[in-house]
Specification:
membrane, Outer membrane efflux proteins (OEP), 4-stranded antiparallel beta sheet, lipoprotein, 501 residues, alpha+beta, 10 helices, transmembrane beta strand, palmitate
Length: 501
């Protein structure tokens, strides 16, 4: 091209690249808003948390092994890893538009024409063409649309990684809960069998007294009904135990009926750990981090939708080698360079509607983020309240059990002395046995509330999780580092209303 046109072309490119560096639709950052959370949990320690793999504090090696197996083989965790791989590939695809494309081509064309002589000539002619070429194309990101789409994809990928962490935290808590519930059913079953033996002894005693005319037939019938009642309580407990074992098998990624666990005593419950500050949840809960990343992703989607309403700038070039003979391919060449601009004139409101849609998505994500934060805070508060009052409840129930045992002893003594009939003894006996069963469940509930607290507090132990199906460690690290360097350096806890003008 003439030198003047060439210079103008270069100057135009410089101007366009200068504009592209501005990214006029970059979303505002979200900083420094605590979402209205209180400064501390009511009546509870604000000491820093150090939870780590909290289930190890329960002191059962088999349980530790079960949790580690579930973190690898649970279906929900594996599905979350698969979704992560999908989002990683999508993020790479979105980011690929930031770079030029280069395509290679090779071709051969052979033609042969001829005449039968009716028009004065006769014969045939062959023509061969060989071609090797390269074609490059690049869309100049003047308005930041490509960058916005890429960062939205990167943030979606990071949010998916937090979804893996959320699934892992959930499955760890579920495995521990099922294990505790299985132990509860076994403790109940052991107590019921002991009660059954005790009731049989009472029955033998009453039958002996009946034969000696010291008890009535009604006394015998009442005690026989008590024996039958306890026997009837055992099958549902055994059934519940089997169902819980099947649920545990599913959490481990195994078929139902292939898992069994050893019977163990309840773990000794340590004092309530330091729970830190409510604001710590924003960093420690993966579901909150995921919601924050999804919010940031939607911000970038708005930027991309706004930029899409403006013209696109494209440059392309091609170079080719052509020759009749392949041996002389370098004897002929062709170079071309082109630039184009294209923008919407009338689209029936399509792009404007997309901007409105993405802005509504931002509003939805912001509300979802706030809901997630408040839900997390409520879960911690609920677990703390439940555990504190459950301890008081258990203490009161144990006092009630001691009083019931005293009542049973007195009723039995008066019955043996002939001062009372058997009904007060039976009433006291049933009360004691019901309390024994109920306290086992109450103690299990206390442990389950602690599991809920650990689950609600979150933690960073999931950050070290890896999947056998993931990229090698060095390659995965490079991918994560690249994405983290592309997105804003601010944390997802830096939230404030965003401008979407």
């Amino acid at each position: 091209m003439p030198s003047y046109q060439y210079k103008m072309f270069i100057y135009s490119l410089i101007a366009v690249f200068g504009l592209s560096a501005c990214s006029p639709f970059r979303p505002d950052s979200r900083e420094g808003v605590t979402m209205g959370l209180p400064l501390a949990y009511t009546l509870y320690s604000a000491e820093p948390q150090n939870l780590g793999k909290w289930w190890e504090s329960l002191g059962n090696a088999e349980l530790n092994s079960l949790v580690e197996e579930a973190l690898t083989d649970d279906f929900n965790v594996r599905i979350a890893w698969a979704k992560l791989r999908q989002l990683r590939a999508t993020a790479i695809k979105e980011g690929a538009a930031k770079y030029p494309t280069l395509d290679g081509s090779a071709g051969y064309t052979g033609t042969k024409t001829g005449s039968d002589g009716t028009e004065g000539t006769k014969g045939s002619t062959s023509t061969d063409t060989h071609k090797l070429g390269l074609a490059a194309a690049y869309e100049i990101d003047v308005w930041g649309k490509i960058e916005a789409n890429a960062k939205s994809g990167d943030l979606d990928y990071l949010a998916s990684r937090e979804a893996v962490n959320t699934a892992a935290m959930s499955v760890a808590a579920e495995v521990v809960s099922r294990w505790l519930e299985i132990q509860t059913q076994r403790h109940k079953k052991a107590i019921l069998y002991n009660q059954l033996e005790t009731n049989k002894v009472y029955l033998e005693l009453i039958e002996l007294r009946f034969r000696n005319s010291l008890a009535t037939a009604l006394d015998v019938y009442q005690q026989r009904e008590t024996v039958a009642r306890v026997k009837a309580l055992i099958p549902p407990v055994e059934s519940k135990e089997r169902l819980l074992l099947n649920e545990l098998a599913l959490l481990l990624g195994r078929p139902a009926g292939t898992v069994d666990v050893a019977t163990a005593d309840y773990p000794v419950l340590t004092p309530i750990p330091g729970v830190g500050l409510p604001f710590d949840l924003l960093a420690n809960r993966p579901d909150i981090r995921a919601a924050g990343l999804a919010l940031k992703s939607s911000d970038w989607a708005v930027a991309a939708a706004r930029a899409d309403r403006l013209p696109n700038f494209n440059i392309s070039g091609n170079a080719a080698l052509t020759s009749v003979q392949i041996a002389n391919i370098y004897s002929g060449w062709l170079i071309g360079l082109a630039a184009s601009i294209a923008g919407p004139i009338f689209d029936g409101g399509l792009r404007s509607a997309e901007v409105d849609r993405t802005r509504a998505v931002v509003e939805e994500k912001l509300l979802n983020y706030k809901s997630t934060v408040y839900t997390a805070y409520k879960e911690v508060q609920d677990a703390l309240i439940q555990e504190t009052w459950q301890q008081k409840y258990i203490a009161a129930r144990k006092n009630q059990l001691e009083a019931a045992k005293t009542n049973l002893d007195e009723a039995g003594s008066r019955y043996l002395q002939g001062l009372e009939d058997y009904l007060p003894v039976l009433t006291a006996l049933v009360s004691v046995q019901n309390l024994e069963i109920n306290i086992v469940g109450d103690e299990a509930d206390l442990l389950l509330y602690r599991v809920k607290l650990y689950r609600a507090l979150g933690g960073s132990w999931t950050d070290s999780l890896t999947s056998a199906d993931e990229l090698p460690a060095d390659e995965e690290s490079k991918s994560a580092n690249r994405i983290n360097s592309d997105v804003s350096g601010k944390t997802v806890t830096d939230i404030k209303p965003v401008s979407t003008k």
